[in-house]
Amino acid sequence: MTDPPPEDIAHEEFELPPAAGPPIGLWAPVALALIAGYVDAIAFVNLFGVFPANQSGNAILVGVAIGELDSGKILPPITSITGFVVGVFLAVRLAYRIPRRWQIEILLIVQIALLLITAIRLQFIPTSELPLSGTEGIFSLFAISGAMGVQTYAVRATAGIPVSTTYQSGALDQIARRTAILSVGHKLPRHPVRLEVLGSIFLTYIVGAALGAALGGDGPRLLWLSCIGTLLILIVRLARTRGETRE
């Protein structure tokens, strides 16, 4: 007789305030993963040399800067990490403060606003002046990273499932663990996050990154597309909520 499968790693040890209204479907985290990959690629290749969403990569960059004793390299990844943490903190604080009925909508609006701060500014900066540096670069990186932090919480409320679009190492870990459980003949623990959802999020993040990189020098001026993608999710959410109210 074999031992029971391990407890699912996605289990939360604490409860966050639940959002009201209907989840808009599993396509939401997939769409947001596409946006996260798109933003990461543009930011890394053209703007800052760091990742607003992928904080595991930034942790490596901090370690490299420390190892090389290069103070100039350490500020961008630390700025991104700080902005991301502040974004998550802000999202959770808002979730406790605002009415549950409008929780998701407000979080998505905050994400759009933070992305727009830099997207609009980039329309007036010549390509020759990129990547961004100095105070303007730090401020822009902080805002975009904050947007990705807000998204990390918003996607859970929007889709109604505990997944993250900005933590690809975690997605791979869950995929590997669940595949291993299946390979020894066990059934997976009952949980709303399915293997196909995790795999789709991981692959879509890669697709988003490929799209952002493929734009080359035009990527920064097209950062606003990430705002349009988030806005579409917001519109669908509002339409579902309105339909539910009528019923």
Keywords:
247 residues, mainly alpha, Growth Hormone, Chain: A, 8 helices, disordered N terminus
Write structural notes for this entry.
67% of the residues lie in helices and 0% in strands. The protein is mainly alpha-helical and 247 residues long. The chain has a single domain, classed as Growth Hormone, Chain: A, CATH 1.20.1250. Helix 4 (103-122) runs antiparallel to helix 5. The longest helix is centred in the middle third of the chain and has 27 residues, at 71-97. The N and C termini lie far apart (51 Å). Residues 1-14 have low confidence and may be disordered.
Label the structural class: mainly alpha
Assign a percent range to the helix content.
Answer: 55-70%
The average pLDDT value, as a whole number, equals 83
Low-pLDDT residue spans: 1-14
In terms of DSSP E residues, the strand content is: under 5%
Radius of gyration: 19 Å
Per CATH, the class reads: Mainly Alpha
**Structure annotation, total helices:** 8
Question: Shape, please?
Answer: globular
Number of domains: 1
Main β sheet profile = none
Order of helices and strands: HHHHHHHH
Q: Architecture, CATH level 2?
A: Up-down Bundle
**Tally of strands:** 0
| Terminal CA distance | 51 Å
**CATH fold group:** Growth Hormone, Chain: A
Lay out the secondary structure.
Blueprint: H1 27-47, H2 55-67, H3 71-97, H4 103-122, H5 134-159, H6 168-183, H7 195-214, H8 224-246
Helix pairs in contact: 1-5, 1-7, 1-8, 2-3, 3-5, 4-5, 4-8, 6-7
In brief:
The protein has helices spanning 27-47, 55-67, 71-97, 103-122, 134-159, 168-183, 195-214, 224-246. It is mainly α and 247 residues long.
